């Protein structure tokens, strides 16, 4: 066991730190799901890509550096420590891309990954439906076989980033006679195509962070099926694993927040909050060490840990700030965002059931 | 960067698990609680045979001079089996303190004072083995490594009492930066039936010992490892019970109230472990304290959940769940309370200026 970073990792970290110090915008960008914010965040993605920092662990041919996973973790730490903008491309970068690496074709990777890495193509998720939330296998949106592809009809909801996204990926019922997990196909759909209607949904904080997607006979070519038709559930569970794991919610995010919390408490925070502040830092450090340790972990355990950590950390921060907290944009927004954690990517109740069944072997 | 135990560390843990599974530890712990250390000492002799008691002893005194990671691997398994006796003291703190006294030429570091002859060890005629001095720490180290004696200490404020001093051949008193032999006073019963806590005062003037800080940190680290192992055992027995105990026509493990509680226990243990291993790499006060807090919390959550899942049967002495449950509570208050360690984490963070 050791905690040493190899020389190339240290050099990489320095490079990232220097670049971020010189390039992170001094003022926050406009909210990502507005037209102005959309443009500003895409422009930021292009700058990252031009610096070779957008997707460091990807193969070079798709815009990456072929860097080891450790570098991606270090990049995330520096990124969050520097207070850099939210990644508008995160659905694609952290969820769809790993799915394409695992189950996509070479043609799909060549076509989809480079524009994704540059922020030219922004992706939304299309999983949940009004009658299929935690029970994802209950989805009804149909994919009908036609010449050269599929026609999609149905409704998706809670679709993150759909307000500004160009395309979406999700699960559709391609065999109407099959039930539950069978007969589902994983498809990518153009949100600008005929028959698509996106209706923004305002969230707790007032921004339209997700949307409903109505699909009325929308054509998707065969080239946009990931994996085999009918094998969508398996492919989707691979994506869900990435969503729940440290790829999307990197330790850097929580380490940075915990450091800010400790600093805020040290500047005159209530001594009575000492233990909770310590616990927030310890939790963030545990998540960090867990990610850096290189242990194979259940994505459901990872999701349970970071989502509960995030809520606790932000609740504590608000108490440390006291009555000023409600007007502190960064912490207040962070708190509202943290509250979503135990819900998205599969509710924590579903995750606990998965842990109980798969990791502990308890009967259903 | 790597916090995964090496293959030889994993096989060491597996070998200790097998050794302890075959050593009738529950019976030995019962006898230990009744004041009969014989069966427990035989467990410790087997541990010594596997090298456990020599891990922190320098090679020239018959030890293995192993690193903190090996100590943590071993201590987790001792916690997993709820081995009775002064674990963190014998495995880590006492050998590190004695080695800190031992001069490089191997000659006595302390002058004066009498000590019981090594030949008379074990012939205490019912009296407590009382050390009057600490010359020739190397001989004591060798006795520890060979499993002939156990060690314990008092080190206020973390350790106001010395645990199981009546079973120990060497009893130390440690203060900031100084140690000496301890004189044993009255004994108190712990909420953990297998632990007896002894008042200890210095038997003579204390000698400077720069190893005190590291010895206490290693003790807290080993205690954290014991807690993690005990927490894992509690989860295992609770899961086994939830699978086999039937109510309302089937196993209780199919109810979400039970499933979710045990899942949360599993998550707590899963994320305490990397802190423990990271602390074994650095042995930095900040990291040791973070590990102690996380392992205490995870183990105490496991204890509460395990008792609740068992119901009344878990509350009986006969069942044996209490061996872990009471030890977890006692150990989480020992070697620094959770509040001590949380305060120390923040105090250490205040000294740092970078992002670490």
TrEMBL record, chain A:
Domain Acyl-CoA dehydrogenase/oxidase C-terminal residue range list: 230-359
Domain Acyl-CoA oxidase/dehydrogenase middle: 124-218
Domain Acyl-CoA dehydrogenase/oxidase N-terminal: 8-120
SUPFAM superfamilies: Acyl-CoA dehydrogenase C-terminal domain-like, Acyl-CoA dehydrogenase NM domain-like
Keyword line: FAD, Flavoprotein, Oxidoreductase
Cofactor names: FAD
InterPro entries, per the entry: Acyl-CoA_Oxase/DH_mid-dom (IPR006091), Acyl-CoA_Oxase/DH_mid-dom_sf (IPR046373), AcylCo_DH-like_C (IPR036250), AcylCo_DH/oxidase_C (IPR009075), AcylCoA_DH/ox_N (IPR013786), AcylCoA_DH/ox_N_sf (IPR037069), AcylCoA_DH/oxidase_NM_dom_sf (IPR009100), Mycobact_Acyl-CoA_DH (IPR052161)
Family stated for the protein in its record: Belongs to the acyl-CoA dehydrogenase family.
Protein name: Acyl-CoA dehydrogenase
Organism for this UniProt entry: Actinoplanes palleronii
Automatic annotation (TrEMBL), chain B:
Domain of life: Bacteria
Entry-linked InterPro entries: AcylCo_DH-like_C, AcylCo_DH/oxidase_C, AcylCoA_DH/ox_N, AcylCoA_DH/ox_N_sf, AcylCoA_DH/oxidase_NM_dom_sf
Family (UniProt): Belongs to the acyl-CoA dehydrogenase family.
Pfam families: Acyl-CoA_dh_1 (PF00441), Acyl-CoA_dh_N (PF02771)
Lineage, opening ranks: Bacteria, Bacillati, Actinomycetota, Actinomycetes, Micromonosporales
Protein name per the record: Acyl-CoA dehydrogenase
Every Acyl-CoA dehydrogenase/oxidase C-terminal domain range: 213-346
Record's keyword terms, sorted: FAD, Flavoprotein, Oxidoreductase
The keyword Oxidoreductase appears for this protein: yes
Domain Acyl-CoA dehydrogenase/oxidase N-terminal: residue ranges: 7-84
Cofactors (names): FAD
PANTHER family to which the protein is assigned, alphabetical: ACYL-COA DEHYDROGENASE, ACYL-COA DEHYDROGENASE FADE28
